[in-house]
Design goal:
Strand content: 5-15%
Strand order of the largest sheet: 2-1-3-4
Catalytic activity: RX + glutathione = an S-substituted glutathione + a halide anion + H(+)
Number of domains: 2
Largest sheet: 4 strands, mixed
Helix content: 55-70%
GO biological process, one term: glutathione metabolic process
Number of strands: 4
Bound molecules: glutathione
EC number: 2.5.1.18
CATH architecture of the largest domain: Up-down Bundle
Radius of gyration: 18 Å
Number of helices: 8
Distance between the termini: 32 Å
Oligomer: single chain
CATH class of the largest domain: Mainly Alpha
Organism: Caenorhabditis angaria
Enzyme class: transferase
CATH topology of the largest domain: Glutathione S-transferase Yfyf (Class Pi), Chain A, domain 2
């Protein structure tokens, strides 16, 4: 049996879609969640391939970078799309998600740097709000044409997991309102009600990110 160990911090963040692929596939893995500020991290940081987490160890072979890890497990367990074209669409949606997240990073940095509230509001209005509008429009357009209710093809892919988990984060941080987004809400609920995910979602640690 292959030994999988996924190491990350005590949040959903960049590791959550990969955790969900393991649950969907019914494949056992060690889900290591280091508490923020854990002293172990100082030492581990010098040892992991790119000095950051998440890292997936596969029988001791370490893979860094969350997107590479997620694609690797999704391909291996059948959640990457059923054809090269579906795989390309799953990748495209995740790339679009990354563009959107980049717009939010500026708000997070401004908050961290204790920038005045007006400055944070300005960044939101000029960068994050239009980016969210465009991202939601793209996703709604895809879902309007989807027969399955999933973003790609007729079954769940890692693109659905990435988008759904980000909707959770947006909702927890006041940037996603279910009553305003029926299609995205249906996607989120569809993913969370997948029989192999339902129990995990209900029992996982509740975190802001
Ligand atoms: N592009 C990388 C980013 C990884 C990253 O930023 N990891 C953060 C946690 S979300 C980290 O390891 N922070 C601790 C540090 O840099 O010391 C990925 O997607 O895996």
């Amino acid at each position: 049996m292959v030994n999988y160990k996924l190491t990350y911090f005590e949040v959903r963040g960049l590791a959550e879609p990969t955790r969900q692929v393991f649950h969907l596939a019914g494949v056992e893995f060690e889900d290591v969640r280091l508490p923020q500020g854990d002293k172990k991290w100082e030492d581990l940081k010098t040892k992991v391939p790119f000095g950051q987490l998440p890292v997936l160890s596969v029988d001791g072979f370490e893979i860094p970078q969350s997107a590479a890890i997620l694609r690797y497990v999704s391909r291996k367990f059948g959640f990457a799309g059923k054809t090269p074209e579906e795989e390309a669409w799953a990748d495209a949606i995740v790339d679009q998600f990354k563009d959107f997240v980049a717009s939010f990073r500026q708000v997070i940095i401004a908050v961290r740097e204790n920038k005045p509230a007006e400055e944070i509001e300005r960044i939101k209005k000029e960068i994050s709000d239009p980016a969210k509008e465009s991202y939601f429009k793209i996703l709604n357009g895809i879902l309007a044409k989807s027969k399955s209710g999933f973003l790609v093809g007729d079954s769940v892919t890692f693109a659905d997991l990435v988008v759904a988990d980000n909707l959770v984060t947006l909702e927890k941080n006041g940037a996603f309102n279910r009553s305003e987004q029926p299609k995205l809400t249906a996607l989120l609920e569809k993913v969370h009600n997948l029989p192999k995910l339902r129990n995990y979602i209900a029992s996982r640690p509740d975190t802001q990110f």
